[in-house]
């Protein structure tokens, strides 16, 4: 029997391949569900999924009540694929002031989260076999998004600190390069990229665009932008590159991951930006999103400036860094998001994650993020779970080293 014949005919061969390569994150999440069913919730310490546990701020619930009380039937109908004009105008005014650029509503597209935004962008700009550069470690789902639209992901190594390496980036640029995805604060490492290094990436992108005679885009994926523990300024994608584009969501800063609301901001300096804006609208429809959720679009302007209470994440971060460092773990400085990315003792991340699983501690191997030899811990969990898990992390490294 050939490999093709052995595949279950119920689904397509590409989906078989996707399922075999399914996200390590989701695999560990499902393993956690199995263990909880077997051993009980209290016995399992699941640090696998970056699922924000800090509740939305009160401004969200106030807006929810206000918007729910409004009764215009038109507010629930189809709209332009780019989203509600009033919401896009509101965002454009805020973004213009923030980035000191003339951003209009025709530079803003409301999306079904940052994931929806990236898929719409990639659908709009990729030719078959175009390359998209990813700085390691990268969010594992990027691979699927790029492959969805005929592109080829290309990993670019970073420094030991996981800061961007401009020289490695320069070498990775080639005739098929169409875009680069920059994610800071970074998932999975928690590293906040130094602004000067991001500016250098932008300069290299612009120079390469000139050489190639077509735009090479810098997509800044920044859903963790407002979850930071340092005062380092956040670089503006719209300023570091004339083809820089912002992709973001309210999933993390407002604790609304399940509501799927985000947006794309196109750089007004892009040559032919109006054509790209039109393509994003068509791609939104082609991909079946049609438009971002109307109800959530109406709520977001009421929550301007709000964030979840970061004290929970900050406390969990401090407990973990102190406890793991005392136990002998090493990790890059996690200055943002809600992840740690320690080195795997012994160097084999999958084997060590299995050792942690024997302690009923679930983490994700770094191999799934393009960075073997590390593993990811999500500390978006209740603090008591973090405190109880510290001795288990210590026991795992002790037993593994024996």
Instruction: Sketch the topology as an H/E string, one letter per element.
Output: HHHEHHEHEHEHEHEHEEHHHEHEEEH
Tally of individual helices: 15
- Percent of residues in β-strands: 5-15%
Largest sheet: number of strands, sense, barrel closure: 7 strands, mixed
**Architecture of the largest domain in CATH?**
3-Layer(aba) Sandwich
- Straight-line N-to-C gap: 45 Å
**Uncertain residue segments:** none
Percent range for helical residues? 40-55%
**Average pLDDT score:** 93
Domains, number: 2
DSSP summary, beta strand count: 12
CATH-defined topology of the largest domain: Aspartate Aminotransferase, domain 2
The CATH superfamily of the largest domain turns out to be Type I PLP-dependent aspartate aminotransferase-like (Major domain)
Shape: globular
Query: What is the topology, as strand order, of the major beta sheet?
Result: 2-8-7-6-5-3-4
Rg from alpha-carbon coordinates = 22 Å
Helix and strand arrangement:
Elements (H helix, E strand, L loop, with lengths): L2 H4 L6 H8 L3 H16 L5 E2 L11 H11 L16 H15 L8 E4 L1 H13 L5 E5 L5 H8 L3 E5 L9 H7 L4 E7 L11 H18 L4 E5 L15 H4 L3 E6 L12 E4 L7 H14 L7 H6 L11 H17 L11 E2 L8 H10 L2 E2 L1 E2 L9 E4 L4 H19 L1
Parallel strand pairs: 1-10, 3-4, 3-5, 5-6, 6-7
Antiparallel strand pairs: 2-8, 7-8, 9-12, 11-12
């Amino acid at each position: 029997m050939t490999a093709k014949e052995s595949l279950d005919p119920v689904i397509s061969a590409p989906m078989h391949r996707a399922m075999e390569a399914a996200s390590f994150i989701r695999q560990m999440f499902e393993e956690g569900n199995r263990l909880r069913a077997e051993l009980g919730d209290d016995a399992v310490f699941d640090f696998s999924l970056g699922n924000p546990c800090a509740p939305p701020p009160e401004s969200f619930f106030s807006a929810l009540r206000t918007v729910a009380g409004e009764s215009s039937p038109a507010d629930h109908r189809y709209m332009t694929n780019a989203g509600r004009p009033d919401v896009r105008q509101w965002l454009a005014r805020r973004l213009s002031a923030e980035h000191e650029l003339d951003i209009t509503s025709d530079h803003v597209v409301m999306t079904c989260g940052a994931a929806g935004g990236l898929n719409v962008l990639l659908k709009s700009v990729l030719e078959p076999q175009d390359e998209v550069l990813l700085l390691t470690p990268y969010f594992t789902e990027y691979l699927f998004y790029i492959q969805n639209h005929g592109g080829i992901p290309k990993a670019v190594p970073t420094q030991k600190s996981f800061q961007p390496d401009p020289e490695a980036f320069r070498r990775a640029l080639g005739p098929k390069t169409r875009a680069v995805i920059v994610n800071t604060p970074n998932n999975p490492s928690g590293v906040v990229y130094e602004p000067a290094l991001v500016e250098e990436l932008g300069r290299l992108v612009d120079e390469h665009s000139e050489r190639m005679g077509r735009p090479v885009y810098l997509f800044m994926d920044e859903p963790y932008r407002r979850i930071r523990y340092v005062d380092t300024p956040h670089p503006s994608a719209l300023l570091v590159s004339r083809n820089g584009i912002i992709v973001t969501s309210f999933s993390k800063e407002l604790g609304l991951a399940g509501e799927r609301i985000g947006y794309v901001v196109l750089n007004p300096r892009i040559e032919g930006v109006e054509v790209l804006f039109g393509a994003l609208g068509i791609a939104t429809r082609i991909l079946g999103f049609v438009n971002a959720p109307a109800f959530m679009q109406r709520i977001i302007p009421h929550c301007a400036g709000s964030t979840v209470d970061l004290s929970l994440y900050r406390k969990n971060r401090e407990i973990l860094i102190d406890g793991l460092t005392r136990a002998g773990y090493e990790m890059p400085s996690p200055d943002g998001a809600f992840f740690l990315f320690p080195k795997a003792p012994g160097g084999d991340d999958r084997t060590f994650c299995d050792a942690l699983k024997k302690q009923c501690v679930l983490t994700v191997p770094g191999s799934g993020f393009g960075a073997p030899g590390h593993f990811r811990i999500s500390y978006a969990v209740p603090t008591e779970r973090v405190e109880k898990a510290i001795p288990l992390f210590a026991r795992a490294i002790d037993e593994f080293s024996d």
